[in-house]
Amino acid sequence: MNIFLILLVKIFPLYINVGLGFFATKYLDVQRHSVAALLIYIIGPIVVLSATMSVEINASVAFLPIFLYIFGSIIAFATLFIFGKNWNDPTGNILAFSSGTGNTGYFGIPLALIFFDTALANIYIFTVLASLLYENTTGFYVTAKGNFTAKQSLVKIIKLPILHAFIVGITLNIMGIKLPEELTFYSDQFKSSYGILGMMMLGMGLHGFNKSEDLDVKFIKISFIIKFIFWPASILALIYLDKTFIQLLNEDLYKVLILFSIVPLAGNTVSLAVLLNAKPEKASLSVFLSTVLSILFIPLALYLYGGF
């Protein structure tokens, strides 16, 4: 139990940033889109570039984003097939999107910086590429199915600044060009800023929804079962198979997989709900509740796994 409390204490300050984000939007008139622009066009690309240049890429590390992208895509299509007809609006599409990913960026990266050393945190950030590609390929398709062409989806992906940063970073990494040590401290400050502003973004999204009108018990129940039970159980099964038969990964990479699987619902679920006009307040409430649940779920999951 001492380990659980230690983990809880480590995680709890992240929720202070959520509260600060809500306060900034409600009382200081801070605009969410301005903070989002900083994260998407400046801070995010610098974080991805520095991490991708620094990570030591081998077959084991490369396996992580490839597997998680494919696994998330399978879950999304399966969820759309099974539950897509349960609502008369695009709620089923939003459910499919949220089932295949999680808040691996704004929430996961701060956790990685808390629990991992710099090298392993960089591997985690490298692995977040799986979520980036999923959300803008498979996730975009299952959410906007029938509304957008493949060409429009491709243009959207090509314009992503973080994807450009990843391509530059991986190219420099392959060429053997690493980030100079003199710039490491500078880039680390952007990682911290990304975590702080990303968590504040969650709080900024809480202003405006009506709990009595936007509570969809069925949506919450299905999404929570997939996110908090199916995802961790599947990753534990993968770890067992690798330890027993494959032996491709190691204990550090197991930790990356575990962290990837236990973060709450993705914040971008709300953005895509806005795109489809599919009750974005409903999505906001679900993301918020999953984030609140994670206060206890994440330290409990890490405690049961043995702690980091």
Automatic annotation (TrEMBL):
Annotated keywords: Cell membrane, Membrane, Transmembrane, Transmembrane helix, Transport
Name of the protein in question: Auxin efflux carrier family protein
Family to which the UniProt record says this protein belongs: Belongs to the auxin efflux carrier (TC 2.A.69) family.
KW Membrane (keyword) present: yes
Segments crossing the lipid bilayer: 6-23, 35-55, 61-83, 122-142, 162-180, 192-210, 222-241, 253-276, 283-305
Primary residence: membrane
Matches recorded under InterPro entries: Mem_transp_PIN-like, Na+/solute_symporter_sf
Lineage: Bacteria, Pseudomonadati, Pseudomonadota, Gammaproteobacteria, Alteromonadales
Gene3D superfamilies: 1.20.1530.20
Subcellular location field: Cell membrane
Any matching Pfam family: Mem_trans
Membrane topology (UniProt): Multi-pass membrane protein
Source organism of the structure: Colwellia psychrerythraea (strain 34H / ATCC BAA-681) (Vibrio psychroerythus)
One of the protein's GO biological processes: transmembrane transport
A single Gene Ontology CC term: plasma membrane
